[in-house]
Amino acid sequence: MRYSKLLIPTLREEPVEAEVVSHRLMIRAGMIRKVAAGIYTYLPLGLRVIRKVEQIVREEMNRAGAQELLMPMVQPAELWQETGRWGEYGKELLRLKDRGEREFCLGPTHEEVITDLIRGEIKSYRNLPQILYQIQTKFRDEIRPRFGLMRGREFLMKDAYSFDRDEQAAKASYDKMSKAYHRIFERCGLKFQPVEAESGVIGGTYSQEFMVLAETGEDSLVACDSCGFAANVEKTQGKTCPRCRGRLITHRGIEVGHVFMLGTKYSEAMKATFLDHNGKEALSVMGCYGIGIGRTAAAAIEQNHDTKGIIWPLPLAPYQAHLIPVNEQSERVMITSELIYGTLSNLGMEVLIDDRSERPGVKFNDADLIGIPYQILVGEKNLADGRVELKERRTGKITKVTTEEVIDLVKKLVLPDARPDES
Ligand code: P5A
After folding, report:
1. Do 301 and 323 fall within a single domain?
2. Quick check: CB of 92 below 6 Å from ligand 1?
3. Which of 12, 148, 349, 389 has the fewest CB atoms below 10 angstroms from its CB?
């Protein structure tokens, strides 16, 4: 893509309203803009990152045998009254009325809608298990929306729901999802820790949160230094590990995912039953599994940045290579740049070429701010020796190589990650 044709409104100044680094950098890099408290527009660059996270999530959900569907955002009050959550959920549930005075809410989560679907469609143990997921906009009227995409009111979530014939089968579905979560956050290039957690207003018998480790994280977790036990601090008292009596060490983190063993909380309230192999009516045993899509992108920035800007892990980067013709007045610079751009693009790489007539310093600063992992600098001085520069954003390391070599190098660096096998 050509920078000159894209809406990338980068900012030099620190936005005053942003308290955490991911929020500041997403605004400064021209990725998001606020529309109202906790409600954002994703600009082209921001949306590309969101789509990268979604794609990884989608591939791993499909690999684990989950099926994608899409449920409505607007949900009738009656379903929430059946489970009692119409009362329980409180002010976070944004309620509205249609022209006929019928009550609805904007979905903060979809246990009721999916349980309603399954009770209507699944009648026999033969049709179980079912794992269904969607990637969809949620609304939670948080008291203090803050930190940009980290804690929004309107936000994107991947939510999955499993239905099984008994507890043992439900545990197998839960484990499958948990394994998929490990793969997802690994593929995103994040350092994370699963922890035992409280299940709150979603409920159920037990739950685990996936925490991205970052000093700026809103959550605190403890991890045992000898047995690997880890939990949200809300879940533990004291300084010793409940499993092995080892020492607990506190870390900060960002909750990017949460998996819940629901048991029969919803199937019982909504009478989601099926006929078991003896022809007897039984309740589905459920699980539900969430990932904050925007929060995952924000957490990646919390974990990967420096004073100059974002340093995207390659799998989440909006583009894989950032090509900078240092002086676009020079014919030689432009011919070489276009050649590299065309070749890399034809290889299936996502390349951003900064074809603006801006001063080199402006282009370099924007490139470091936006944080694409590999920069290719094409300038007259190096071209005199037939060379261009390859700069690695993370280390700042610059290698001078020929045009052919740069294509080869970038290919090796970028393409093995671009299309992970779908086995
Ligand atoms: C699981 C899926 C649920 O809602 N029901 C369906 C369950 N879980 S959860 O923990 O409440 O949310 C799942 C993930 O969504 C992200 N998230 C948010 N992201 C941005 N802004 C918010 N206000 C917000 N609230 C939740 C988190 O990543 C959470 O783990």
Report:
1. no
2. no
3. 12
Amino acid making up residue 99: R
* Cα of 335 vs its chain's centroid, Å: 38
Band of residue 421 on the pLDDT scale cut at 50, 70, 90: low
* Nearest-CA residue for atom 5 of ligand 1: 109
Scan for tokens 């408290």, then name that residue.
37
User: Which CATH number belongs to the domain containing residue 91 in this structure?
Assistant: 3.30.930.10
Average pLDDT score over the chain? 95
Q: Whose CA is nearest to atom 30 of ligand 1?
A: 257
Question: Strand, helix or coil at 167?
Answer: helix
Q: Which residue CA neighbors atom 26 of ligand 1 most closely?
A: 292
Tokens for 199?
């299940």
Domain that holds residue 367: 319-414
423 band by pLDDT with thresholds 50, 70 and 90? very low
Regarding the beta carbon of 23 and ligand 1, being less than 6 Å apart is answered no
177 lines ligand 1 (CB under 6 A): no
How far CA 308 is from CA of 364, 367, 370, 393, in Å, comes to: 10, 9, 9, 10
* 322-364 pLDDT tens trace: 999 999 899 999 999 999 999 999 999 999 999 999 999 999 9
Q: At residue 373, what are phi and psi to the nearest 5 degrees?
A: -60, -30
3-state helix, strand, coil in the chain (%, to 5): 35, 30, 35
> pTM for this structure?
0.96
Domain count, the chain: 2
- Determine the distance separating the centroid of ligand 1 and the alpha carbon of 32, expressed in angstroms: 20
